[in-house]
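quick q for whoever's on today - can somebody do inverse folding on this one?? i tried earlier but teh output was garbage lol. tokens:
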């Protein structure tokens, strides 16, 4: 039997197993090293000293652009050939390509093995399905894959990527709505990342059912096209991954405020009433939502004439109360002559089709629907321009739902075409392309204003266009904790702007759970309360007087933290580091971080550690990693690298600040439109090591920051020189804070708290 191809004859249907085989020749041209075997071709590209791309195919499609990647490879690179190998060495990495049979093995520059093909099986095909078997290292752990259930450490688990409308999912369900085929491996004190850029249904097995022998990944079709990341340190790998796939832009400041949603507020009066109640009760909030019932018969880009008769008037009233509105849009376009989007879509041929040219019809909320083919540029343009129906009355946020895409019955026939591909080839990118069309279109028609886009389905790179939420969770403690793990995991895969339905979409949470979940929501990048139709009302005042006070306090806390949070988002735009960070990013080799008792903990920005606690527990074991820590609510001091049992009443979620932590805060405001008292409070917690924080502001609404109209300075704490300082301001914007106050924590005997100084733009230094 030849080594390169054999048929496993025992298989009744005669499924072919084809293996990549031995190298027969290679050449380098235009920055691509092409390697040929009898069965396949491999292409190797270098994107940076720490990023190497390997793509293996039986049959490369000449024009197969990536939805995710926005960078180009470097020009030619050097390699060494010996009788056994072709070696490519960068300052950080060595890729050793074994010739017989073809294998790809990655090493650090110093020669430690990072990741290797399985010596026996390497890459192979069964029909169009391609799989890469890899060596599983002793003690190897895995994090990533984005919106995946299960544990932080994905070792011994297996996952499928197939964007799915997953109502009533459990904390074990897979797949959910999104596809991020990117994971990070941790072993021997080393880190690496691997991104399989392939939109077909894909599979990842981290030693789940291989007797600890191999891990493997693959897809139902397409190329085995992966980017290997060899930077040491998880944060650096995330920086490289988001350098390759893009980073989020500054969100509108208002979208970081409290968001109140429901399926559905049924009329303009109800929307206004809820908004008014927030103002009357002085519970801060920024955003109201309209779910599907604002439309006329669920027709996208229409308003219900009876219940929302004067959208502009409603929006003007909301605006006068400093509220913004987000409206939902689904992809399904109702089949109905005389409906503008239907008529135009038919006339211009904008809908997904069967191969014979007939438009695909599926059932969703409006009944029979066609689905825009977001894979075509002209369709995206058309879709984007249609948002004037919403932006003209004043809508500024656009919620993209059902874009897996969902249709009743779920199984959109495989024969339906999106662009020039069949559904199974690109399904996982449909939601991303809808979000892209929504973002590009609304950005264009909103002048210089930042749109807020929220999407349910996503693929790698979606952070460039949209925030995401984790879909239809349930009102239980297990879902609250799962939600946090999803947020933490999505952060590893470039998504920084994430929310979960606080309180749980389905079911009715207990008042205790609602309070607890809201307190966690204050420390979630997107802070949104949402519930299914028919559930009990969920607004903060629906839970009794005492609970209302607690919920209000936690929302107030969110608003106090906005200067810190906005700067943390700025950090995401620059480095890709998420706002909510699993402890595995910084403490990748600290076993306690992966302990199921502690795996939900996360850093919220640089300085705060948050420990989610079930609503039924009033004390909790918390693991504090390396460093020392203060409880935020009491300034109580703790040394790190220990498990501490702490009080966790519903009024005080366990939140800790790292020693040396710098957290700029503001006074409580009722919305992000309000200026407050104009004093920036720079809180600093004493520590032994110097620390600094990049403080960032801009107008919060426009793209002027792209023209240098922003305000940025470094706040530094130096315990050796006993000083606090602010560097002089970079950028041409003024701060919204005229004055400045340092608030000290854990500095015995030092009293600066009361001193309010002018927030001048030159260097500021105070001695402690
Ligand atoms: O078939 O628009 O996940 O947030 O409220 C359900 C109604 C459709 C699913 C979304 C949910 C939204 C709901 N939608």
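ok took a stab at it. sequence:
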């Amino acid at each position: 039997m030849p080594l390169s191809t054999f048929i496993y004859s025992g298989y009744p249907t005669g499924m072919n197993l084809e293996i990549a085989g031995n190298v027969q020749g290679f050449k380098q041209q235009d920055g691509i090293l092409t390697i040929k075997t009898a069965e396949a071709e491999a292409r190797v590209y270098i994107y940076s000293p720490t990023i190497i791309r390997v793509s293996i195919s039986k049959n490369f499609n000449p024009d197969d652009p990536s939805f995710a990647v926005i960078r180009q490879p470097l020009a030619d690179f050097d390699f060494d050939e010996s009788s056994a190998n072709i070696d490519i060495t960068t300052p950080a990495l060595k890729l050793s390509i074994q010739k017989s049979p073809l294998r790809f093995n990655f090493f650090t520059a110093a020669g430690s093995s990072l990741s290797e093909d399985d010596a026996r099986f390497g890459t192979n095909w069964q029909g169009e399905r391609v799989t890469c078997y890899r060596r599983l290292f002793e003690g190897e752990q895995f994090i990533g894959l984005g919106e995946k259930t299960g544990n932080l450490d994905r070792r011994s688990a297996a996952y499928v990527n197939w964007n799915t409308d997953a109502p009533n999912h459990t904390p074990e369900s897979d797949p959910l709505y999104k596809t991020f085929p990117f994971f990070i491996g941790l072993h021997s004190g080393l880190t690496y990342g691997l991104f399989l850029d392939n939109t077909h249904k894909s599979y990842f097995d981290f030693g789940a059912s291989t007797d600890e022998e191999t891990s493997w990944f693959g897809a139902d079709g397409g190329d085995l096209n992966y980017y290997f990341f060899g930077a040491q340190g998880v944060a650096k790998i995330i920086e490289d991954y988001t350098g390759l796939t893009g980073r989020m832009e500054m969100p509108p400041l208002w979208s970081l405020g409290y968001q109140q949603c429901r399926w559905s507020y049924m009329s303009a009066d109800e929307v206004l009433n809820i908004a008014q109640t927030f103002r009357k009760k002085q519970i801060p909030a920024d955003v109201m939502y309209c779910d599907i019932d604002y439309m006329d018969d669920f027709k996208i880009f229409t308003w219900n004439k009876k219940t929302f008769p004067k959208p502009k008037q409603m929006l003007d009233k909301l605006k006068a109360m400093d509220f913004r509105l987000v409206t939902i849009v689904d992809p399904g376009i109702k089949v109905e002559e005389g409906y503008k989007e239907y008529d135009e879509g038919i006339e211009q041929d904008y809908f997904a089709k069967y191969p014979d040219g007939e438009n695909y019809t599926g059932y969703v909320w409006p009944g029979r629907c066609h689905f825009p083919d977001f894979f075509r540029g002209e369709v995206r343009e058309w879709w984007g321009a249609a948002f004037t129906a919403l932006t003209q009355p004043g809508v500024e946020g656009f919620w993209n739902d059902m874009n897996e895409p969902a249709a009743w019955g779920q199984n959109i026939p495989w024969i339906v075409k999106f662009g020039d591909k069949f559904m199974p080839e690109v399904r996982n990118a449909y939601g991303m392309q809808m979000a892209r069309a929504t973002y590009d279109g609304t950005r264009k028609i909103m002048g210089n204003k930042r749109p807020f886009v929220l999407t349910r389905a996503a693929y790698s790179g979606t952070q460039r266009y949209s925030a995401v939420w984790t879909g239809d969770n349930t009102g239980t403690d297990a879902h609250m904790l799962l939600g946090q793990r999803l947020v933490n995991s999505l952060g590893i895969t470039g998504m920084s702007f994430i929310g979960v339905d606080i309180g749980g979409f389905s079911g009715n949470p207990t008042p205790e759970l609602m309070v607890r979940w809201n307190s966690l929501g204050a420390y979630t990048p997107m802070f949104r309360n949402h519930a299914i139709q028919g559930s009990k009302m969920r607004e903060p005042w629906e839970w009794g007087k005492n609970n209302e006070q607690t919920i209000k306090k936690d929302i107030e806390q969110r608003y106090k933290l906005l200067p810190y949070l906005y700067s943390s988002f700025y950090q995401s735009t620059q480095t890709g580091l998420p706002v909510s960070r699993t402890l595995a990013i910084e403490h990748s080799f600290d076993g306690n971080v992966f302990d199921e008792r502690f795996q939900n903990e996360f850093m919220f920005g640089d300085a705060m550690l948050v420990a989610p606690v079930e609503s039924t527990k009033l004390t909790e074991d918390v693991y504090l990693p390396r460093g020392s820590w203060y409880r935020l609510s009491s300034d109580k001091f703790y040394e790190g690298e220990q498990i501490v049992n702490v009080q966790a009443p519903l009024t005080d979620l366990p939140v800790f600040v790292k020693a040396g932590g710098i957290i700029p805060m503001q006074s409580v405001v009722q919305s992000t439109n309000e200026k407050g008292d104009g004093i920036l409070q720079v809180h600093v917690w004493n520590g032994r090591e110097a620390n600094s924080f990049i403080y960032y502001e801009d107008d919060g609404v426009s793209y002027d920051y792209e023209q240098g109209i922003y305000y940025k300075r470094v706040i530094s704490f130096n315990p050796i020189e006993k000083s606090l300082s602010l560097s002089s301001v970079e950028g041409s914007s003024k701060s919204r804070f005229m004055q400045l106050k340092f608030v000290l924590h854990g500095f015995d005997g030092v009293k600066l708290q009361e001193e309010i100084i002018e927030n001048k733009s030159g260097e500021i230094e105070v001695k402690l």
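fwiw The radius of gyration is 27 Å. also The chain is about 20% helix and 30% strand. so keep that in mind when u check it
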